[in-house]
Amino acid sequence: MLDAICVLTTEAAAEHASSPLRLNPNAQTGVTYSVFKFQLLPEAEIEHLRQHLYCPACYGKAYFRKASKDGKAACFGSRYHEHDCIEFNPSAQKSREEQDALEVQQQLLDADALVIDFSLNPSNKRPSNSALNVNARQEQEVGAKNKTAHDTEPLESVQEPKADYQVAVDKPEIAIMAKRTPSQGLEKLLHSLLRGSDLAKSDLWVYTDDERKYRWRAKNLFVNFADADPTDNKPHLYWGTLSHCDPLMTWLNPADSKDIGIPIEVVKTKLFKQFNITDKRDLEGAGIILFGKCFWNKDKTRKIIQLWDNDLRRIFISTLED
């Protein structure tokens, strides 16, 4: 489990409030903790609260296990789940996403930096790189001739602004860093964000290129759609969930913000093939992360997030499994 409810009895709450070991003035009865937050509490507070944890779904008595020396992540669990509890019988997708979140969270705690591997294949089957490049030029030419209803144009030969990253120029240090810096693909990064990891708030350095030349603070790189700012003129890894698409399936609409659109007409055919999308319903409620830039449409009535160079390696869509 990634979450647990802490329910203190009246007596325990009073004891907690008056205890000299109480280090969190905001602690109260009926608080839901994520395992990521709980493991960062002071040791004395963890020891006090761990006996008052319950499953958030069936309220069975729960426990907290610390991270192990052999690399196992901290977690909540319970041996008292109801037989029909979703935490006791989670879907395969939920289990996979939670495991991804735990893996990324552990990397945040253990690593000095993280490299984003945009070429890493996700768990769902994808066509080969050669297949993704078939007719790419033709598709881009068609997209360039057919502007969308919002009168937006794709970015052309954009580069990451130097104000947003540091450039590593010492090649020997880069080689050493490569040996001890873990890499991660967009799929697990997205799942960790959706499941509440601290990635979007972390000071961890994140490299966005294979040569480890450009690095960003994670808190500056990962931006939820709700916080997208078209005036900052900087690329980010935008993430969140999708509400729906337009009738022609050429625009994606994030659920996190009503005034944002993601144009996909130029890459629609390959994108849908890559993520096995055959119907509008496949996009409803799906998680999404993409590297791109946010800007206003001409009338400044809608924010547009453009996929960087229309590069399909820089986007991942996590559809819901029926």
Automatic annotation (TrEMBL):
Residues 126-137 have a biased composition (Polar residues). Residues 126-159 are annotated as: Disordered. Residues 138-159 have a biased composition (Basic and acidic residues). This is Uncharacterized protein. It comes from Shewanella cutis.
